[in-house]
Fold each of these.
Amino acid sequence: MPFLRTSLAAFAALALAGCSPASEPEAPETQPEAATPFPTLTGELPAIVAHRGASGYLPEHTEAAFQLAFDQGADILEPDLMVSRDGVLIVRHDPYLSTSSDVADRPEFADRRRELMGREDWWVIDFTAGELQSLNARQVFEDRPQEYNDQFPIMTFGDFLDMVDAMQARCNCDIPVEPEIKLPAEHAAMGLDPLPILIAELEARGLNTEDSLVIIQSFDAPFLERLRPLTPLPLAMLHYGDAPGGDMNGYSLEQVAEFADAIGPYKGLLLNPDGSSTGYVERAHALGLVVHAWTHRDDRPSVIEGGTSDDELRALFALGVDGVFTDFPDTAVRIRDDMLRGE
Ligand code: G3P
Ligand code: CA
């Protein structure tokens, strides 16, 4: 499917051009390309993917967090997507709501608390989109700033896309997005299959085309295989990393390359504890897979033993990852700029 590769290469290039004015003239074709220290698949600079927005600073998945990420220089915005009771895609990472919203302080929803998946909580699938939009977001991590809690509402995917449209109008630039469909099989089992909802929403907005700046990610290989014939958009298979060798529903990289354009591995699958390469990026690139690694966090230990989070980011960029999900886009911009200057 060569048109998909073209689409993804264009996506990667546009991701880096995303913060430039749309009307900016192109550089002359004869201009020699500067060498960079980033051995990415396309030769472009690695993209900085805002993980749930600038979620290290502001409550995740809020308009403020996405706007801050853009202002800090992020190239791509990532929303995670759940499904509401009435079949609307909701920008949320967790299927439960108590840790990321004010739902526990809302008496009108007190009786919605119930046990599911071994946990007592309030669940996205028990609320309509309108009810979810009435909730306010909170910082999930207790050691991150809490003073912005309860100021920004939960968004639907439609709200998110409206926000991106408005941001693009303000900057006169293109802003790529990388939505992740969370728990598609689990939602489908409850009668809330996200696949037709996603396709309908993208098509309604003219975004299910090969030149749209959208890349779809999921941890669910069968979901991406179902999606493949329904969209020309690039697909990214996420690779969970806690088990030795990680977990991709038992699929190999070679099998994933049959239906996906990109791979999203946990960063610890790319770097050995001493900071050396595991060879993963080279294997993925050899299969034509773009690599978007997750998740860099300034305030969490590095996967490099004795290394800083900056060391980890430098090592990932030096491996040639094509993108890095980060809660702190400003740090990734700084490190990428430093490396470009040879520092
Ligand atoms: O989608 C990349 C990365 O975000 C996967 O982990 O759990 O943060 O969605 P998670
Ligand atoms: Ca994600």
Amino acid sequence: MKNVVLIGFMGVGKGTIARALAKESDLYAIDTDDLIESLENRKIREIFETEGEPYFRKLEQKTADWLARSVQNAIISTGGGFYKVKNIKEIGTVLLLHASFEAIYDRILSHPNAKKKLAKRPLFQSPQKAKALYEEREKAYREIADRIIDVEGKSPKKIAKEIKKLLFR
Ligand code: S3P
């Protein structure tokens, strides 16, 4: 089996769904932002602040190269901009998790740690700017995805079962 690569906008639930799917499938879930933080030994926010976005994008490409070369049979959740790496299709089957911007924003705001969830995302500092980015990326996400799943209003467990049915059987 190839890897499953979850893409989609910030806050759509890629990490949560990756872990739910991993549990359903007895596979490991890994996250590209976590890999980058461990490689750099600092937080994404700090990398953005001190090095800037282009440096972070280079780290995403480095991570993509490592994943394509070295990882198999995993569920991989990605940062919202990871879809731009040049070899995403070599890593595995690309699955887009789709929800409306309003649902995503609500999901973040209703989290008990909403402040922290927003603070750790440098590109979600203003809802207006985040919405513009969402609109700019929507089409590109769809173009790169092998499959698309609508996640709005569904529990992670239900989504995980749906993905399993779609990809593993
Ligand atoms: C980004 C999304 C973030 C993180 C970084 C940039 C983006 O990940 O990789 O802040 O460009 O959309 P999440 O999608 O997990 O928030």
